Amino acid sequence: MLFSVVILSFNSQRTLDRCLDTLAATLKNYNEDSEIIVVENGSSDNSVGMLKAKVEQYPELIKPIYFEHNTGTTVSRNAALDVSQGRYVLVLDSDAYIEPDALNTLVDYLNNHPKVGMVAPKLFYDDGRFQKSVDVFPTLKRKVERFLSLNKMQASEDHESYSATDVDYAISACWLLKRDAVDSVGGFDENIFYSPEDVDYCMQVWQAGYQIHYVPEASVIHDAQELSRGFKLSKFHFSHLGGLFYLFKKYGYFFGLKGLYRRLGRFE
User: Fold this and answer.
1) Would you list the DSSP string of 122-162?
2) Tens digit of pLDDT for each residue in 169-210?
3) CATH 3.40.630.30, domain 3-264, yes or no
4) Which terminus of the chain has a smaller tally of CB atoms within 10 A, N or C?
5) Mapped to the 3 state alphabet, what secondary structure does 103-129 carry?
6) Which positions ≥6 away from 16 have C-beta within 8 Å?
7) Taking the domains of the chain in order of start, what are their residue ranges?
């Protein structure tokens, strides 16, 4: 098995069809079998019906897992990882669309950099705007800055000048991982329900002795709804805040990153 793709579906009828069709077309470019594991996380829209139709369309490719209620992002992804068989694991959001050139670029990069366990592409919104998808590990100060001025930060970044480089973390809209890195980390921390599970997982990748690299030569559309961004407070903001303080406690830091980097072996 070449690729195991892990996708979560929660009220994703707006994007799931395009995500799966684009992905299926991309995977056809490889001579080896792959699998798409879609975890349906208790949607209340027509996502279940859409997924069942896609399973009928791609019966040898899509392997669904159905939950009756929303289990968050960690329990659900772990359920998919537990049954995945691919030499590469592609973690993909249901509103992300990956084309063949991007996947080829990410695979080639992983193969040519033995110390790298995870790579992430450059992301764009569906309207063509650059999306900030990598950052330093969060501190309270950094999270306030992102909350207040993320759109300004995205607009001002000269993203065309970026070259491939190691990063603290990448958002989990699109990750490609080596199987041995996934096996070494062992899964997402299920004490986190929604967010920042991606930051925690990246910390575990670094702690396991692997590097994470941003590869802007590969680009992917992420048609994000931005549920936890902006000034309108919602349950997603409060869930994210609770997860953030859990992260600070788990790794023993709050303001600065120097001690965290040392404990994770970030610059060893």
Assistant:
1) EEE-TTS-EE--EESPP-HHHHHHHHHHHHHHHHH--GGG-
2) 999 999 999 999 999 999 999 999 988 999 999 999 999 999
3) no
4) C
5) HHHHHHHHHHCCCEEEEEEEEECCCCC
6) 9, 47, 50, 51, 54, 94
7) 3-264
Predicted local distance difference test score (pLDDT) of residue 229:
47
Residue in 202, 184, 181 with CA at minimum distance from that of residue 247: 202
Q: Rounded distance, CA 264 to CA 267, Å?
A: 8
Element (H, E) at 86: none
DSSP state of 13: T
Contact 42, 70 (CB under 8 A): yes
pLDDT cut 90: percent of the chain above it: 80
* pLDDT for res 36: 98
**CA–CA gap between residue 62 and residue 134 (Å, rounded):** 29
Query: Under DSSP, is residue 7 helix (H, G, I), strand (E, B) or coil?
Result: strand
Q: Residue-wise over 186-205: b if at least 16 C-beta within 10 A, else e?
A: ebbbeebbbbbbbbbbbbbb
